[in-house]
Amino acid sequence: MRKKHVPMRTCVGCRTAAPKRELIRVVRSPEGEVTLDLVGKSPGRGVYIHPQERCLENAVKGRQIQRALETSIPEQILENLKRVLHEQQE
User: Fold this and answer.
1) CB 88 within 8 A of CB 51
2) How far apart are CA 33 and CA 56, in angstroms?
């Protein structure tokens, strides 16, 4: 039987590769709106991050999310991301 291809993506917080389904996607839509993409299929420029607080802290502190999306990230999006991380850790 043939092995199924697993897409890999790099976390912007820790810079390690992981299967796409294990990461959370933050996307900037063509209109410039930044949102969380929990399904992973929204159109626009996206970055991936592990559902761990240390990865989020590293990405925010180093401004990797802002740099990768080429825009500023509203505080509300960061709060939503923190909330999602806490929900997935429980």
Assistant:
1) yes
2) 20
